[in-house]
Design a protein that fits this description.
The protein is of the alpha/beta class. The protein folds into two domains: about 1-85 and about 170-269, P-loop containing nucleotide triphosphate hydrolases (Rossmann fold, 3-Layer(aba) Sandwich), CATH 3.40.50; about 95-170, no CATH class. It has helices spanning about 50-60, 80-85, 105-115, 125-140, 155-170, 185-205, 215-220, 240-245, 245-255; strands spanning about 5-15, 25-35, 40-45, 65-70, 75, 90, 175-180, 205-210, 225-230, 230-235. It has a six-stranded mixed sheet, with helices on both faces. It binds adenosine-5'-diphosphate and magnesium ion.
Length: about 270
């Protein structure tokens, strides 16, 4: 033990869709995963491997069939999604989904900020506004001077950056990023990845990031897991991870699973 506290503990988590029918799909097959406070785990795997389903299970989009989910040593297995949302920030692929387009940047941030503190929406004070300005400035996108701009007028990358701030402004215990740069152009995607690592490192947020960018998966964060057919088939960190190349990873996969890693958006270089 290194003294770090455990933040997420998945114990024998299983989920089967359409059980007992011809469409039966074992999407999560007895997943065991333990994350320490501050772990930044990247997640890779083929289409349909169960990556998003894993996030859905953690966030409470459905209840799992078997097993237990503990967040910060609290058993949340039976908690509904809205309750878990106080502690779990989640970012999806679609930059249009995380923000309210007809509200301004400032209002969006205020909404996220007050949601957790349960302050009234209009109880924002000057120091809150200057806090928003500060975190916007840190994005280095010039948005701190556009706080009254409606979010609907921003680019996909800018909106994803705002969503990222909204997800992290109240220091969640866990941040789930589901291919959150996949819908962006390469330059915007790089920028959002940089912003992501800055925010995560600065706030030491325990983070899981699904990505189709294998190189990013091996270079960002401190740990990488690979999923296939509802199972975790590789879990590496430290030296072993540092030395691993994209090619070695793909070779490992094809040897282990007797098939090629396929993902329609996979970036290998
Ligand atoms: N809500 C659902 N209902 C039925 N099947 C689902 C549902 N969510 C996911 N699945 C199935 O579970 C498998 C894993 O899906 P998913 O977790 O989305 O894969 P990934 O994110 O790794 O590409 C797929 O076969 C998918 O069709
Ligand atoms: Mg997915």
């Amino acid at each position: 033990m290194n003294g770090l506290k455990q933040m997420l503990d998945l114990r024998n988590v299983s989920k089967t869709f359409y059980p007992g029918t011809v469409n039966e799909k074992k999407a999560l097959n007895c997943i065991n995963l333990h994350l320490e406070q501050g772990d930044f785990v990247t997640i890779i795997g083929s289409n349909g491997a169960g990556k998003s389903t894993l996030f859905n299970a953690i966030a409470g989009s459905f209840f799992i069939d078997n097993g237990a989910i503990l967040l910060d040593n609290k058993n949340i297995t039976a908690d509904p999604d809205y309750k878990r949302a106080y502690d779990i920030g989640r970012l999806m692929q679609d930059p249009m989904k995380g923000t309210a387009p007809s509200m301004t940047i400032e209002e969006n941030l205020a909404l996220a900020y007050t949601r957790k503190s349960k302050k009234g929406f209009f109880a924002l004070n000057k120091s809150d506004a200057s806090h928003f300005r500060e975190i916007l400035a840190a994005l280095d996108l010039g948005l701190e001077n556009r706080m009254k701009t409606k979010v609907g007028h921003l680019s996909g990358g800018q909106r994803q950056a705002i969503t990222l701030l909204m997800c992290t402004i109240s220091s969640p215990k866990l941040l789930l990023l589901d291919e959150h740069t996949a819908a962006l152009d390469p330059a915007a995607a790089q920028k959002i990845l940089k912003i992501t690592t800055d925010i995560v490192n600065e706030n030491k947020i325990t983070t899981m990031m699904i990505t189709h960018d294998i190189k990013a998966a091996l270079s960002l964060g401190n740990r990488t897991i690979m999923m296939d057919e509802g199972e975790i088939i590789l879990d590496i960190k430290g030296d072993k991870r540092e030395k691993l190349t994209v090619e070695e990873l793909l070779t490992y996969y094809s040897k282990e699973r007797k098939k090629q890693l396929t993902n329609d958006r996979m970036l290998l270089i």
